[in-house]
Write a structure and sequence with these properties.
The protein is mostly helical. About 60% of the residues lie in helices and about 5% in strands.
């Protein structure tokens, strides 16, 4: 049989088997019921402050902060609104407009080039179904959604280029003839892929909503009393170094210098002389130097960042 007791704070009944009243938030004893929501919000922000160093981390470049989904949702630029909403509609309507244009060329091409009408409709139909599925994925706010978008754009561009190449060799009349169906098809797919790919790459809204990355100097942090100025970037570098270490797991630490030097670079990386240090120290610093060089080669950091961070690593030695 359930035995109830009355909470001294909110005067509501709850099962006495529970240690605390489920109607109240812990730590709010003595607060008035009208101030309960405000007090809980302040406590949540305070808790976020104390856990910032544990839950947040700097990106490799050091100018942005990787936050969790719940924190990203608090940002005013988060969500499928504004420019992202237009992007969602463009994603769906691009192949749909392609099918409409193809059907408009039916009277011109039906008797002589009906194959290209069917061909264009099929591919635009497939892309439309794919785009419609992608538009649903946009509501999930996950990093993999961006990967799905990039795959869609790459496949679209390949289809456009392959179609143009094939048509120019088989039947040039639908490429530059009375009905430039394939030329329009090619331009639509390639231009859309390039423009959208560029947008996804630079959009701050995309970074906040799906990658959960916020600029370090964003007013959002100060507005929510979250201090990120003291966040160390050791975690970011450690993650990058560990990933690079996994890739070169069977390589001696002394060879990381060679792995960090790619053929595209004119200068080689000279590792410090650490003969007096232990083997573990040598491997640790070798990994950090290699990860730093790899980040520079992948253009994840600038040359100035590279020199500054390299000096910091050498100063620790």
């Amino acid at each position: 049989m359930i035995s109830l007791k009355v909470c001294d704070n909110c005067s509501l009944e709850y099962d006495e088997i529970l240690a605390d009243c489920p109607h109240c938030y812990s730590g709010q004893i003595g607060a008035s019921q009208g101030d309960e929501k405000s007090s809980y919000t302040d406590r949540k922000i305070s808790q976020d402050n104390t856990e910032t160093s544990k839950d947040f981390r700097l990106t490799i470049s050091g100018d942005a902060v990787q936050v969790d989904l719940e924190t990203a949702k608090l940002h005013p630029n988060f969500g499928l609104t504004g420019e992202l909403l237009y992007f969602r509609f463009a994603l769906i309507f691009s192949p749909l407009l392609g099918m409409i244009y193809t059907l408009s060329q039916y009277p011109i091409l039906f008797k002589t080039n009906s194959f290209w009408i069917i061909y264009s409709c099929i591919f635009d139909g497939v892309l439309f179904v794919w785009a419609y599925w992608l538009s649903g994925q946009l509501f999930k706010f996950q990093r993999k959604t961006i990967d799905y978008i990039y795959k869609y754009l790459i496949v679209s561009a390949i289809i456009g280029i392959a179609t143009a190449y094939m048509c120019s060799n088989l039947n040039n009349s639908v490429f530059v003839g009375p009905s430039p169906l394939i030329l329009v098809h090619f331009l639509k797919l390639t231009c859309f892929s390039i423009i959208v790919g560029f947008y996804v790459k630079i959009s701050e809204k995309i970074k906040i909503t799906y990658l959960h990355i916020i600029k370090k100097n964003d007013p959002f942090f100060s507005a929510h009393n979250i201090n990120v100025s003291t966040l160390p970037n050791d975690t970011a570098w450690l993650d990058h170094a560990n990933g690079f270490s996994d890739m070169t797991k069977n390589t001696l630490a002394s060879n990381h210098k060679t792995l960090a030097n790619f053929s595209g670079r004119s200068t080689s990386e000279q590792l410090p002389n650490v003969q007096s240090a232990g083997l573990e120290t040598v491997e640790n610093f070798s990994l950090r130097i290699a990860a730093l060089k790899n980040a520079l080669n992948q253009e994840l950091i600038t040359e100035n960042d590279y020199k500054k961070k390299k000096k910091q690593i050498l100063d620790e030695l």
